[in-house]
Amino acid sequence: MANISADELAARLLDDCLNARPWSHSDARSLASAALSDDPRQARSAARALFTGLIEPFADLFDPRLAADYAAIFSVVIARALPSLRAPDLLARYGVVSSVRPITGEPKRVIVLSRVTLGADISITSLFLDAAKRRFPAAGIILAGASKAWELFERDPRLTLFAVEYGRSSTLAERLATFEPLRQLCDQPGTILLDPDSRLSQLGLLPLCPAENHFLFPSRAFGGDSLDPLPVLAARWIEQTLGINDAQPYLHPRFNYQFGPSPAVTASFGVGGNHSKRIDDLFEHDIAAHLASLPAQVFIDAGIPGSEEEARVRAAVEAAGEQGKRIGIHTGSFASFAAMIAASSLYFGYDSAGQHVAAAMGVPVVSVFKGFANQRMLARWTPHGPGPVTVLRADRFQDSSSLLDAAVKALTL
Predict the structure, then answer these.
(1) Rounded (10°) angle between helices 64-81 and 87-97
(2) Which residues touch 208 (CB under 8 Å, ≥6 apart)?
(3) What is the CATH architecture of 109-242?
(4) H/E element, 362
(5) Residue ranges of the chain that CATH labels 3.40.50.2000
(6) What is the DSSP code string of 247-308?
(7) 3-class SS at 339?
(8) For 177-201, how does the pLDDT look when each residue is reduced to its tens digit (9 = 90+)?
(9) Mean pLDDT confidence for 12-21
(10) Global pTM?
(11) Which helix (H) or strand (E) holds 360?
(12) Which of 31, 197, 203, 257 is a plausible cystine mate for 219, CB 3.0–4.6 Å?
């Protein structure tokens, strides 16, 4: 490790796997060791190399072969971080939990793990919650996740929360700190675990309960070479596992908006911290100006208070001039904005959480996609629902001006 950085180790492991070459267990252990360093700066930097440089590219390609490589490599990482666990045992267990098999019996409790990201919790996790409630009417249904995920469903009387936070920019040790509390929750008699491929379980690898009680939706491999979106695949897995053939996405926040007879348009310039997904400032300024010209109430989410997203939104509204005064800037929680989206007549945004809320609720969606790894990633994350969905692929336009023209044409009431 002395002569090679964590970034280089991650890149080498990724290159070996992408090119179907044998990868080095020594590289995987060295990368894990760097991510577990006592030096906080080194640990954070190496964790970023591990997850952003290696694990996320594996997931984004939705390649079944790479899903298997992930399981093998991250079993080594987990065993290095949690010495009581052995990589071969973790890998063998993963083979069981990732197999699609019907659930038999009537558990007393059903644990559903959050997907951590809010868009996925609407488009995927909510399907699991809906199906669990219907398949097991007498069982307690527990959502394990962060408070921001719980806020999307908190008025659902069938659900209770097991609060567990997961920092997507945390060190490896901090991310794996969820293991013990979740194991104590899940490893109980009469309990089954429904896992929508959650980072809380490290995509099914952490032994949170006996393998026979852990049911994993292997979202990166399930569906193979098809171009079906993730909600369709999740519904198919749920039918094969739980026997529910019409699971529905939903949200049940404490917020409720009524806009009256006038149409409402909602929009977001959020990209979840991934700036490869956005176009540029001028594009957003022009979109805001067009939205302000529509015969509708218009609301744009500001994102996290004090964030660069909020600064971009306020700049775009200001650039719209006098008409920009017609735009309301939403500054509450995402659950509040999700309720606003659900009550609106039209939604605009990048590939981020808002588009999945709109699609799930049947609200017409205009979504701009940029920065996706391949065609299958685009297909998997395309918003899916009962309403009309317009996806504008940035790579199919000559420049941002022609993309803007297409967006303006699509944004009609």
Answers:
(1) 140
(2) 179, 182, 183, 185, 186, 187, 193, 201, 214
(3) 3-Layer(aba) Sandwich (3.40)
(4) none
(5) 109-242, 264-410
(6) -------S-----TTS-EEEEE---TT-GGG---HHHHHHHHHHHHHSSSEEEEE--STTSH
(7) helix
(8) 999 999 999 999 999 999 999 999 9
(9) 97
(10) 0.96
(11) helix 353-360
(12) 197
How far is Cα 285 from Cα 319, in angstroms, rounded to an integer? 6
State how far the Cα of 72 lies from the Cα of 79, in Å rounded to an integer.
Answer: 11
How far is CA 161 from its chain centroid? 19
Record the tokens describing residue 269, joined without a space: 């310039």
CATH fit for domain 264-410, picks 3.90.180.10, 3.40.50.970, 3.40.50.2000, 3.40.640.10? 3.40.50.2000
Give the pLDDT mean for 371-398: 96
- Tell me, what's the pLDDT at 2? 53
Q: Which of 333, 350, 341, 348 is nearest to 270 (CA)?
A: 350
Closest by CA position to 219, among listed 64, 379, 101: 64
Tens digits of per-residue pLDDT, 52-99? 999 999 999 999 999 999 999 999 999 999 999 999 999 999 999 999
Q: Give the DSSP letter string of 174-195.
A: HHHTTHHHHHHHHSSTTEEEEE
* CB count in 10 Å sphere of residue 314: 14
Q: Which residue has the tokens 């249904």?
A: 141
